[in-house]
Amino acid sequence: MGVSGTGKTTIACLLATRLGVPFADANDFHTPGNVAKMSSGLPLDDSDREPWLAAVGRWLHDRDTAGTGGVVACSALKRRYREILRASASTVFFLLLTADREQLIERMAHRHGHYMPLSLLDSQLAALEPLESAERGAVLSADQAPEKVAQAAATLLQKHASTPDAE
C-alpha cells in the first residue's frame, strides 16, 4: 500500500513471485469511470472507491478461501479503506511503502502508460493515514532497488508468520 510512485506494483509483483503466490494490481479493478476521472486530474471520492474496494476485497477473500494467499498492490490510503479490505480477508497484512515527495515526483514523471497524473500526488499524500499500532502491518522505505525492498518485505512477512500471535 502507499501513494502513487512508491513502487507498489513493481515491488508487489516481485514479492508475489518470491512467495509463489498470485498477484493482482488494484488499479485493474477500477471502473472505467474512475480511470477517466483520475486521468483528467480529479481525485476519487469515497463513493468512487466503494465498488473498487469491494472488488479488491473479493479478490483477497477468494485467495484466502482458496488457501493460496496472494499479493495485491493497492493504495489503501485510509484506515477505513483498509478495514473494508480486512473485513473481506481477515488475514491481510499491510506493507506501507514510503518515499519522500521529491523521489515520488521523479518516479511519476518518468512513468509511461499510467493514468495517475502527477497533479494528484499531493491529494494522495494528504489522504494517507499511516498504519496504526492496532493494524497488522509494517512500514518499509521504498528508497532502495525494488528487489531489495521485495526481499525486506518477504523477510517481514516470514517474521510475522512465525510470530505466535499471528493469525
From TrEMBL:
The keyword Nucleotide-binding appears for this protein: yes
Record has Lipoprotein as a keyword: no
Entry keyword set: ATP-binding, Kinase, Nucleotide-binding, Transferase
Leader sequence segment: none
Stored Pfam families: SKI
Record pathway: Carbohydrate acid metabolism
Annotated EC: 2.7.1.12
Domain of life the protein comes from: Bacteria
Catalytic activity of the protein: D-gluconate + ATP = 6-phospho-D-gluconate + ADP + H(+)
Similarity annotation: Belongs to the gluconokinase GntK/GntV family.
Protein name, as recorded: Gluconokinase
Organism: Nocardia vinacea
